[in-house]
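Section 3.1: Structural characterization of target chains.
Under the original work plan, the team committed to producing a structural model for every single-chain target entering the pipeline before any wet-lab resources were allocated. The record below documents one such target. The sequence was received from the expression subgroup and is listed exactly as submitted; it comprises 346 residues.
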Amino acid sequence: MDFSIASILLLDGVTNGAVYALLGLATVLVFTVTRVIFIPQGEFVAYGALTLAMLQSGKTPGTVWLLLILSVGAALMELVERWRHHGNALRALQSALKTLAFPALISVLSIWAAPQQFPLGVQAALSVAIVTAFGPLVYRVAYQSLEAATPLVLLIVSVGVHFAMTGLGLLFFGAEGFRNPPFWDERFTVGPLALSGQTVIIFAVSLALIVLMWLYFEKSLRGKALRATAVNRTGARLMGISSHTSGQLTFLLAAFIGALSGLLIGPTTTVFYDSGFLIGLKGFVAAVIAGLSSYPGALLGALFVGIVEAFGAFWASAFKEVIVFTLILPILLVRSLRSGHSDEEH
């Protein structure tokens, strides 16, 4: 291996690591706020890329129909729960309509826009909106009633949600893979490296999103509320911060990050209905390196995972996934030895 090959592999690793960083940050965010190890994070990635592929072909994505079904189910759950706890039919109906409004609006807009063949940027924005709307609904249907459950129970629920979303992905998109067109076709040469426009977009969007997330959590009131919930859920609830709202907002951000990541990787690789699982797991490895608690650690861990994957693919392409996922074992061993064991949170 000479310097030019090492440089190319390093660039590929950092490019992939930039996407894994977004997924790692989303995994850390969801876990710190809700204690959910969100395995289906990768499904949002696949849904984002495949939804755009369907819009590119002029068809209404199957995710639109799933969004409608899920929003109706969440609205009915909200109606029953509000009515049962407060006994006010009008307030219960208002809460249910509030749950239904945004997904219904996005669905109607998508059904109208799908055959119109709008420019790629408009279709990309619509794809992100569709997948982002799934976040609060998934939390409402699968997790909100189990807020007080142990992390193990929430993990089991995450496994079930993952299998459900993967199966529905096969139903709506089929077994065929799709590759989206790049958002920028330019190519640049820097020494031995050949940079594509899509690579530049991946770096720019990832960096911008990380900065925006930092500003959101440092400067905005809702961001500070999420930080408070992550630090002390009981204390945040006593201060008037709704755990329900925090959970839904967290899943909204996670779905948005997943959808955007799907658009970023869609032009670089063929995405299948089940591709999100492996991609999400690599983001999870980055989050594990950070101890599921540190955002800078997740960023550095993701870059490390991307570089290891790139060089592993060069030396032993058949075992690149094994090499990446084996990283978890020594990391978990070291963290287990350095930290004391405590009873599971009740």
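DSSP finds 15 helices and two strands in the chain.
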